């Protein structure tokens, strides 16, 4: 397998975010040949405004789109806000979904996961995220569904993952499936 680089996007701006902590844990669990880069610009994106599309591309948007285009795949860890996804993540997806048909996420393999203190562990939010990605022709890993419930028991006050073995094995399995999906979508790149 050629080396693969995945871009990890956390849908939380919180300093001690459980979702960002989950992505950091994935970085440390990545198999040989897989690098995971954590995107940190979500809070710098302007609000999507269709009027801006006619003018110069905002620098933060160009930066995000370039990172996504250059990555072999993307990992999105989303919090669940009001049974959906946070506005900052939706804003990023709106930018990444344009221009229609030529957007950076089109045909880009994606893995989704999420952590929440509730019993459902972002199950509802992830459904919303999957529906959005389906709409913009983004292939998403089907299994495993990684819903990290009762996250307050698994992360410390700084957002560091405590490392429970079940979650770790799910994170490894999700990464392995993202590698498979990436191979299916660009076999020449991963041969
Ligand atoms: C505006 C808002 C809405 C929320 N709605 C939900 C929800 O619908 N379901 C849920 O499980 N948690 C909900 N939560 C709690 C978040 O899951 C919790 O704050 C989580 O730690 C956020 O993720 P983070 O740690 O990555 O920032 C909500 C939190 C906020 C701030």
TrEMBL record:
SUPFAM superfamilies: Flavoproteins. Pfam families: FMN_red (PF03358). InterPro entries: Flavoprotein-like_sf, FMN_Rdtase-like_dom, NAD(P)H-dep_reductase. Residues 6-148 form the NADPH-dependent FMN reductase-like domain. It comes from the Bacteria. GO terms for cellular component: cytosol. One of its GO terms (molecular function) is FMN binding. This is NAD(P)H-dependent FMN reductase. It comes from Streptomyces finlayi.
């Amino acid at each position: 397998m050629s080396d693969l680089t995945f871009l990890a996007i956390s849908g939380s701006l919180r300093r001690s975010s459980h979702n960002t902590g989950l992505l950091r844990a994935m970085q440390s669990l990545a198999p040989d040949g897989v690098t995971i880069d954590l995107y940190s610009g979500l809070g710098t994106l302007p609000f999507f405004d269709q009027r801006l599309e006619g003018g110069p591309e905002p620098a933060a948007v160009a930066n995000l789109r370039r990172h996504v285009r250059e990555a072999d795949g993307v990992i999105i860890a989303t919090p669940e806000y009001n049974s959906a996804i946070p506005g900052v993540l939706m804003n990023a997806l709106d930018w990444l979904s344009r221009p229609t048909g030529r957007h950076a996420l089109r045909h880009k393999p994606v893995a989704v996961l999420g952590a929440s203190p509730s019993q459902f562990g972002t199950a509802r939010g992830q459904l919303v995220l999957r529906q959005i990605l389906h709409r913009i022709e983004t292939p998403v890993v089907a299994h495993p569904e990684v819903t990290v419930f009762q996250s307050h028991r698994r992360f410390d006050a700084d957002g560091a993952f405590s490392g429970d073995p079940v979650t770790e094995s799910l994170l490894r399995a999700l990464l392995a499936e993202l590698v498979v999906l990436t191979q299916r979508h660009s076999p020449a790149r991963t041969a």
